[in-house]
Amino acid sequence: MIEVLDGLKDVIACETKISRIELVDGKAILEYRGYDIRDLAKNSCYEEVAYLLLYGELPKKYELQDFRIELAERRELPPQIIGLLTHLPQYTHPMVVLRTSISYLGSLDRLKDLKTREENLEKSKNLIAKIPTIIAYYHRIRIGKNLIPPTLELSHSANFLYMLNGLEPSRIAEKALDADLILHAEHELNASTFAARIAASTLADMYACVVAATGTLMGPLHGGAAQEVMKMLREVATPRRAEEYVKKKLEKGEKLMGFGHRIYKSIIDPRSEILRDLAIELAKKGNPIWFEISEAIAENAYKYKKLLPNVDFYSASVYANLGIPDDLFVNMFAMGRISGWLAHIIEQYESNKLIRPRAKYVGETERVYVPIENR
Ligand code: ACO
Question: What is the pTM of this model?
Answer without folding.
Answer: 0.96
